[in-house]
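Please fill in the sequence for the structure shown.

STRUCTURE ENCODING:
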């Protein structure tokens, strides 16, 4: 069955995407993967989404020249139509209002109040179209003392607490290696939009979704956040170690390091037997997980000394034989070229006429549906390439903005 003929979960849904960079585009790419028609509005004055210029890695055209398809942009913008619209002009505002009248969802990530002057704010569009689902993403939300501060992933990770937990115990606070605050905010946005659409379908009522990077980041502090709320004690940076489980960490081996995740007392006993450390489970200092937490420094030293001389594959084989979770620490290349990645379609090749290879390689969507599978219908678009087609599709007179 061709991709265009494949039944999709969100087929027929129209999403007007006024967002840029990562949080909003992550949400709309997910909706696009599920079948929605996503119209990405890009500013001709800036050359489109900011991330089109976030190199150094770009797809090359058939002549070997750099395109505006940066790797960063391509990470969050497949399955979208790109149109060039200048919101500062009357014609541009009318174009977006026309599209909003036909859309099910509008998503934007301007500073709070930033779209008011164009008449494209949630209050104005929901008054005109009460059935619309309108999602606003900002750094700190539409209310609160910091509402007017700009929001970037780094600022959210710092303000929301996750950096204080990340890094070596004797090192500085560290951000996560990817824009995780943006990505998780985009996931929350997609969930919120789908919930609002269900309400809309049941009642005919649209609504406004107010989502902040910092709010989302604090929500996924999960156990460390509730550890603090329960005890009043600030969590500590522990590198790769777990605050509530021991041993659960990266340990040395002959080739570098591997991961060990002992989840309960029975697993600890089996692990110790497999490595000639059978006396440890009988020691009151290590018998229970709570005891191991209290004595984690000494236990880590004992285990590291025993494991460091052994080859990684031998360690992993022993752990797997006794059903103790353990695994490698892959490079990105090793992860994305692994047999597991291949079996699960973690990397997908999408056809495009815009590159020398005729394809672009992208990270696959992890959702596996039995009835309405994810589809890869469109590669990440060149800036404004679909302007004429979208105008024709939605009956907009072809005037220049």
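FILLED IN BY: designer on duty
SEQUENCE:
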């Amino acid at each position: 069955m061709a991709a265009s003929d494949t039944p999709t979960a969100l087929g027929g849904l129209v999403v007007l995407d006024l967002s840029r960079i990562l949080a909003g585009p992550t949400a709309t790419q997910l909706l696009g993967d599920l079948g929605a028609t996503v119209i990405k509005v890009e500013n001709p004055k800036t050359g489109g989404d900011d991330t089109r210029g976030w190199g150094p890695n770009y797809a090359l055209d058939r002549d070997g020249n750099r395109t505006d398809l940066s790797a960063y942009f391509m990470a969050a913008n497949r399955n979208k139509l790109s149109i060039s619209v200048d919101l500062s002009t009357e014609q541009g505002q009318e174009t977006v209002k026309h599209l909003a009248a036909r859309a099910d969802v509008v998503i934007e990530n301007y500073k709070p109040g930033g779209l008011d002057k164009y008449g494209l704010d949630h209050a104005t569009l929901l008054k005109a179209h009460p059935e619309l689902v309108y999602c606003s993403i900002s750094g700190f939300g539409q209310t609160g003392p910091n509402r007017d501060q700009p929001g970037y992933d780094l600022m959210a990770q710092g303000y929301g607490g996750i950096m204080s937990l990340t890094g070596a115990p004797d090192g500085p606070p560290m951000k996560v290696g990817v824009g995780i605050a943006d990505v998780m905010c985009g996931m929350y946005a997609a969930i919120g939009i789908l919930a609002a659409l269900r309400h809309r379908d049941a009642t005919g009522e649209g609504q406004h979704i107010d989502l902040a990077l910092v709010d989302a980041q604090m929500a996924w502090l999960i156990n460390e956040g509730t550890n603090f709320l329960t005890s009043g004690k600030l969590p500590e940076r522990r590198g790769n170690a777990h605050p509530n489980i021991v041993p659960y960490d990266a340990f040395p081996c002959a080739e570098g390091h591997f991961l060990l995740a002992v989840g309960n007392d029975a697993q600890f006993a089996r692990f110790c037997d497999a490595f000639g450390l059978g006396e440890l489970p009988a020691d009151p200092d290590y018998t229970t997980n709570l005891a191991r937490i209290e004595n984690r420094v000494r236990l880590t030293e004992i285990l590291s000394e025993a494991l460091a001389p052994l080859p990684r594959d031998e360690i992993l084989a022993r752990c797997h034989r006794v059903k103790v979770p353990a695994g490698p620490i892959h490079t990105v290349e090793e992860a994305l070229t692994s047999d597991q990645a291949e079996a699960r379609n973690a990397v997908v090749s999408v056809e495009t006429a815009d590159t020398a290879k005729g394809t672009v390689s992208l990270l696959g969507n992890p959702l596996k549906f039995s009835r309405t599978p994810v589809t890869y219908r469109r590669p990440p678009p060149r800036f404004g390439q679909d302007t004429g087609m979208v105008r024709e599709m939605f009956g907009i007179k072809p005037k220049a903005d």
